[in-house]
Amino acid sequence: MTKLKIVEIPDPRLKKISEPVKEINQDIINLLDDMLETMYSAPGIGLAAVQIGVLLRMIVVDIAAKDETPNPIFLINPEIIEASENLQECEEGCLSVPKQFATITRPAEVTVKYLDKKGNVSQIKADGLLAVVLQHEIDHLNGKVFIDYLSPLKRKILLRKLQKERRLNELEEK
Ligand code: NI
Predict the structure, then answer these.
(1) Can you give the pTM of this predicted structure?
(2) Residue 137 bears catalytic tag
């Protein structure tokens, strides 16, 4: 497994629509393992392939807490087949928008159909944090980042904060 560099905004790849995976071969399995390692070391609880610069419809998720046994889920070609009318609010962040957070409203429960690593068709019915992460990551496959849900003003403030922190980091590194 290799830890890869995470693509950050405003990289144009984050706005692209990812292609379905046609065949689950060893390259795909290796990529999924690299994605998991990259996500764990970030650390994060979800990662889409586009975030390591690969425009394929794959995500990895693990919402287990630090003191719990890791519980990674690999989803290939995930698709939301059902979403509740009930909504929930959650504070979201994204490894591609480092250290910035905002409250986003999404359906509280979703059912996601996907292929697992062995190519079996699987389904997850999720609520709570898992529902949030699945929707957030599937958005990435459609060229969408959580800040796209914000009002133009809120987005501008968040992007300004990000810019400021990046400048401070640069200064610290010098
Ligand atoms: Ni993200």
Answers:
(1) 0.96
(2) yes
